[in-house]
Design brief:
- The structure is a single chain.
- This protein has helices spanning about 5-10, 35-45, 70, 75-95, 110-115, 145-155, 180-190, 205-210, 215-220, 235-245, 250-260, 310-320, 340, 345-355, 370-380, 385-390, 440-450, and strands at about 15, 20-25, 30, 55-60, 95-100, 125, 140-145, 155-160, 165-170, 200-205, 230, 275-280, 285-290, 295-300, 330-335, 365, 395, 415-420, 435.
- The longest helix has 17 residues, at about 75-95.
- The chain is about 35% helix and about 15% strand.
- It is α/β, with parallel strands linked by helices.
- Helix 2 crosses helix 6 (about 145-155), helix 14 (about 345-355) crosses helix 16 and helix 14 (about 345-355) packs parallel to helix 17.
- Belongs to the aconitase/IPM isomerase family. LeuC type 1 subfamily.
- One of its GO terms (molecular function) is metal ion binding.
């Protein structure tokens, strides 16, 4: 009897069995422009080649501008240098690259699943903490540092300590207006941002079984915000259907054989977890963060916690007071996108609310698809027209306003309703103030000009 994580680990250990550090074989290495320049320089200094360029895939995402004109003539010298370096390095070392103008381009954690590079049973690494996203497929996926990027490039292996197992059993039916983003924000608020420290965090239960792959990716994406290195969901028919037919996925008989193997990738018993948390989401409401880490949040109808020493610094930075209603937070910006919520289903939810309505006069709303594929699919469905007609800006793909590493910055001291994953000080720009929500909550806030409870039966009256 063993957990899903244990099974994935055991399949990939090639040295150091039973020791504190064990050597894992890496099936897929995803890279981008920010964490690779030093790694490639290290290869040159030691005269090494990339061990398996066929198991390495690159995309440009963190530094890419989302306005087309800026994309064609990047003005930030550091961003341009990193993007140019990735292009040169991929050409020199024979690595496939989806550059800014490639139809496969997008945020690294978007393109892996879209292309079928992300598959159940794989070990997947990337120089980005939100690599945990890929665990939604039953893959052992996590972020690595720049020196580890070099090690994987050179050897296709990685020394790692084995984690413990944390099971999070989620049960119940989510109310209309409540989404996977609300589930993970609730977990972080209730159990803290270090609940998963030292663990692989596996989500399971009837709520998870009824979620789409996009929703499962949202959960695993933010498992890192709970301190976990790895987020996991066991693969099932939903997973198999999503993977089938994608560019790099197995085909025909190979696919059928792979599915039979993937069906074995599940935790045998709840007793296999070192720790178990059980959550009932039947009464869960839309979540809004008020502070400076993802655990500082709660239901929309709950006021900001009363002034306390533990909250003082966060409240001061956010310029809000204890006891304030979340509906009174003075929003000026809305961002819908990121590797957490930049998928087609996220944009559909936002468009459903924005259709036929207008963004409030004091709100700047920016919609950024997470990938070229999502952009093209959204435009084919006419979602871009809905957004533009509502007064939103429709952009090119990229990490965008999730982080202050490209031109898409929130002005200092202004509040943003964001579908991204982090609300740290300065995350979206110097002194910017971030409130994490679901795409539907962000869209409703764009129209209302403030946060509203979209799970209430009469919520649309607040958009009139």
């Amino acid at each position: 009897m063993s957990s899903l994580y244990d099974k994935l680990w055991d399949r990939h250990v090639i040295a150091g069995h039973g020791e504190a550090l064990q050597l894992l074989y890496i099936d897929q290495h995803l890279i981008h422009e920010v964490t690779t320049p030093q790694a490639f320089d290290g290869l040159r200094m030691t005269g090494r080649k990339v061990r398996r360029p066929d198991k390495t895939f690159a995309t440009m995402d963190h530094n890419t501008p989302t306005i087309l004109a800026d994309r064609q003539a990047i003005r930030d010298e550091i961003s341009k240098a990193q993007l140019d370096a990735l292009a040169r390095n991929c050409a020199e070392f024979g690595i496939e690259l989806a550059d800014m103008f490639d139809d496969r381009n997008g945020i690294v954690h978007m393109v892996g699943p879209e292309l079928g590079l992300t598959l159940p049973g794989k070990t997947i690494v990337c120089g980005d903490s939100h690599t945990a996203t890929h665990g939604a497929f039953g893959a052992l996926a996590h972020g690595i540092g720049t020196s580890e990027v070099e090690h994987v490039l050179a050897t296709q292996t990685l020394w790692q300590p084995k984690l413990k197992n944390l099971g999070i059993k989620v049960t119940g039916k989510l109310k209309v207006g409540v989404y996977a983003k609300d589930v993970i924000l609730h977990i972080l608020n209730r159990y803290g941002v270090s609940v998963g420290s030292g663990y692989a965090m596996e989500f399971f239960g009837d709520t998870i079984e009824n979620m789409s792959m996009e929703e499962r990716m949202t959960l695993c994406n933010m498992s890192i915000e709970g301190g976990a290195k790895v987020g996991l969901v066991a693969p099932d028919q939903t997973t198999f259907d999503y993977v089938k037919g994608r560019t790099y996925a197995p085909k025909d008989d190979a696919y059928l054989a792979a599915v039979e193997d993937w069906k074995t990738l599940k935790t045998d018993s709840e007793s296999d977890y070192d720790q178990l948390i059980v959550i009932d989401v039947n009464t869960l409401t839309p979540q809004v963060t008020w502070g400076t880490h993802p655990g500082m949040g709660g239901g929309i109808e709950e006021n900001v916690p009363a002034q306390a020493a533990a909250n003082e610094k966060a409240l001061e930075y956010m310029a809000i007071s204890g006891g304030m209603a979340k509906k009174d937070i003075p929003l000026k910006h809305v961002f819908i996108g990121s590797c957490t919520n930049g998928r087609l289903s996220d944009l559909r939810e936002a468009a459903h609310i924005l259709k036929g309505r207008k963004v409030a006069a004091h709100i700047t709303a920016v919609i950024v698809p997470g990938s070229m594929q999502v952009k093209h699919e959204a435009e084919a469905e006419g979602l871009d027209k809905i957004f533009i007609d509502a007064g939103c800006q429709w952009r090119e793909p990229g990490c965008s306003t999730c982080l202050g590493m490209n031109p898409d910055l929130i002005p200092a001291y202004e509040h943003c309703a964001s579908t991204s994953n982090r609300n740290f000080e300065g995350r979206q720009g110097k002194n910017a103030r971030t409130h994490l929500v679901s795409p539907a909550m962000a869209a409703a806030a764009a129209v209302a000009g403030r946060f509203i409870d979209i799970s209430r039966p009469d919520w649309e009256k607040e958009l009139a």
